[in-house]
Amino acid sequence: MTEAKFEIQMLHDRVMVRADKESGERRSSGGIVIPATAELANRLVWGEVCGVGHQVRSVKVGDKVLFKDEDQLEVDVQEEMYLVMRERDLHAVASERPEYGTGLYL
Predict the structure, then answer these.
(1) Which of 1, 56, 82, 93 is the most exposed place for a label (fewest CB within 10 A)?
(2) Model pTM greater than 0.85?
């Protein structure tokens, strides 16, 4: 007997995000190597939006968003980790839409 497949639909103002994979160790602007095990307080991370609820207005699937991953709910879907959060927990959106912006690009 085969297992049924279900499509995931986010509800209300919820956003499902796949956090970008950290490349392990990083370098500071001064050239100092920061090991992957170093924990940075109050660090925001980038991720890709994988699903949005019907009340979400500012982001769409495929956008890159900036958020704090420590306070979010994690869910494992087909052996991949995703974060579920409210739209108001997002700090910035990086998209190809040129409507508004800071003039900064990724």
Answers:
(1) 1
(2) no
